[in-house]
User: What shape does this take?
Amino acid sequence: MVFQGTFLFPHLTVSENIAYGLKMRKDSKESQTLRVEKMLNLIHLTNFAQRDVEHLSGGETTRVAIARALAPAPSLLLLDEPLTGLDEHLRIDLAKDLRTALTTSGITAILVTHDRNEAAIVADRVVQFSDLISPS
Assistant: This one.
C-alpha cells in the first residue's frame, strides 16, 4: 500500500527502503539488489540509492514509496492519494510513470484520488463514488 503520507523508514537509505519488502520475504541478496536497481531505474532515481530519505524532496519521497510498494510485485496494490501535494507537472509525470510501472508489471491497483486528470492517466477504469452515493 502507498499512503498519502509516504511513511518511509527514516533510518534506512533509499535502496534499503525499496528492498524492505524483499528482505522481509527473505529474497536472496542478489535478487534484492537486482530488483532494487530495476525499481530505481523505473522511478528515475538511479543515483539516489545510498541517499538518506530525510534528504529527499516530496516528489522523490513519493517515488521511493511507490518503488517500495512495487518491489515485491504484489498481486494488488492500494494507493491512497499518493500524488497529493505535488505540483501539477510532477504529479502528471509521476502518474505516467505509475501507469507504466503497473502495466509493465501486470499489477492490479486501486487508486484513490480526487484528481480526475490523475485518474485518467493512471487508470484503465474509473469509478466516481459521488455518482454512486445518493444524498441523505
In short: The first strand starts at residue 76 and ends at 80. Helices lie at 14-24, 29-42, 58-70, 88-105, 116-122. The first helix runs from residue 14 to 24.
